[in-house]
């Protein structure tokens, strides 16, 4: 989905809630049926639009990320958030691949948990308010 400049201007200071229905395409019992947390594109939109909070709803979870008290914008995304995401995304991929190799994590479990784990680490590093609730 694409947003016009006018659309983005209307989103400022709002709570943007959207769904991540992909989990519905997996059978019950498959860890991927829970759905995933935010994509990097979700947070790019949130920062560009300067929303107060972004939420993503999956078949099982509600994910939330709040704008920091210092604010966020496109520059924050490109200079702070995106580099932190990239670092943690690579680290989580490496750790999960090793866990799959040793049998302590299945590929489906890794896929289901990946973005949540990345955002937990990004939020911890940057002092952001990220949460996931059933």
Describe the structure.
The longest helix has 29 residues. This protein starts with a helix and ends with a strand. It is built from four helices and four strands, in the order H-E-H-E-E-H-H-E. Strand 1, helix 2 and strand 2 form a beta-alpha-beta unit. It has one domain. It has 134 residues and is of the alpha+beta class. A four-stranded mixed beta sheet has the order 1-2-3-4, covered by helices on one side. Helix 2 packs antiparallel against helix 3 and helix 3 packs antiparallel against helix 4.
Summarize it.
The chain has helices spanning 5-11, 40-49, 74-102, 107-126; strands spanning 15-19, 53-57, 62-66, 129-133.
H/I helix tally: 4
Q: How many β-strand runs?
A: 4
Give the strand content.
5-15%
> What is the N-to-C order of secondary-structure elements (H for helix, E for strand)?
HEHEEHHE
The global form is: globular
Name the features.
134 residues; alpha+beta; 4-stranded mixed beta sheet; 4 helices; globular
Write the layout of secondary structure elements.
Elements: H1 5-11, E1 15-19, H2 40-49, E2 53-57, E3 62-66, H3 74-102, H4 107-126, E4 129-133
Parallel strand pairs: 1-2
Antiparallel strand pairs: 2-3, 3-4
Helix pairs in contact: 2-3, 3-4
């Amino acid at each position: 989905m694409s947003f016009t400049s006018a659309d983005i201007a209307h989103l400022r200071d709002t709570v943007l809630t959207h769904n991540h229905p992909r989990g519905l395409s997996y059978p019950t019992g498959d860890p991927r049926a829970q759905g995933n947390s935010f994509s990097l594109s979700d947070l790019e939109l949130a920062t560009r639009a300067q929303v107060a909070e972004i939420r993503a709803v999956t078949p099982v979870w509600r994910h939330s990320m709040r704008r920091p008290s210092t604010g966020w914008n496109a520059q924050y995304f490109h200079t702070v958030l995106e580099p932190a995401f990239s670092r943690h995304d690579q680290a989580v991929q490496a750790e999960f691949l090793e866990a799959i190799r040793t049998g302590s994590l299945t590929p489906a479990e890794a896929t289901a948990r990946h973005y949540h784990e990345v955002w937990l680490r990004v939020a911890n590093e940057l002092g952001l308010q990220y949460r996931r609730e059933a």
